[in-house]
Design goal:
By secondary structure, the protein is an alpha+beta fold. Helices cover about 25% and strands about 25% of the residues. It has helices spanning about 1-15, 35-60; strands spanning about 75-80, 90-95, 100, 105, 110-115, 125-135.
C-alpha cells in the first residue's frame, strides 16, 4: 500500500508538474523561424563573441568567483550605425548581452558598444563602451560564487 501511494504521488507530480522558482530571466524570446536578418545576426555573433566574452569577463571578475558565459542567442543587436556613409566599412554596433552561469542562470544585463572597421589596429574590433545595466539575484545554491 505504501509503495502504491508513493507511485501515485510521483505520477501526479509528473503529470501536473511542480511550480519551482526559475532564476533564468524571461527576457529572452526565441525566434519562431529563420530569416536572413537572423542569419546575419548569428554570423555577426560568431565574429564578435570572443570580444564580448573578454569584456564580460573583465567586468564580472570583480563580482563573481565563476566567470559567466555569453551564449550568442542571449545577445541582442540594438543598434548598428555605418560611420562613413553608404558602402563604408566602418561600423558602430550596440549590443545587449545576458551573461549566464551554470544551467543558464542569468547574472545580469550589459550593454556593449563595438567599433568595427578594417583600419582598427590589431583585428578590426574595438570595445568602445561597456555598461552594466542590471544585476540579477542568484538562487540560494549559487550564492557561493558571489565575491
Amino acid at each position: 500500500m505504501h509503495k502504491r501511494f508513493i507511485s501515485l504521488i510521483l505520477a501526479v507530480v509528473t503529470v501536473i508538474g511542480l511550480q519551482l522558482p526559475s532564476y533564468a530571466e524571461g527576457a529572452y524570446s526565441s525566434p519562431k523561424k529563420d530569416s536572413a536578418q537572423l542569419q546575419y545576426q548569428d554570423m555577426l555573433m560568431l565574429f564578435l563573441l570572443p570580444h564580448i566574452d573578454k569584456a564580460v569577463r573583465g567586468h564580472y571578475i570583480h563580482t563573481l568567483k565563476e566567470q559567466p558565459l555569453v551564449y550568442p542567442y542571449f545577445v541582442d543587436v540594438t543598434g548598428v550605425k555605418r560611420v562613413n556613409g553608404f558602402r563604408g566599412f566602418h561600423f558602430i554596433i550596440t549590443l545587449e548581452a545576458s551573461p549566464t552561469v551554470g544551467p543558464h542562470i542569468t547574472v545580469g544585463k550589459d550593454r556593449l558598444v563595438f567599433e568595427v572597421a578594417p583600419t582598427i589596429p590589431g583585428g578590426m574590433v574595438k570595445l568602445v563602451e561597456y555598461k552594466h545595466l542590471e544585476t540579477y539575484e542568484l538562487p540560494p545554491h549559487w550564492q557561493d560564487i558571489v565575491k
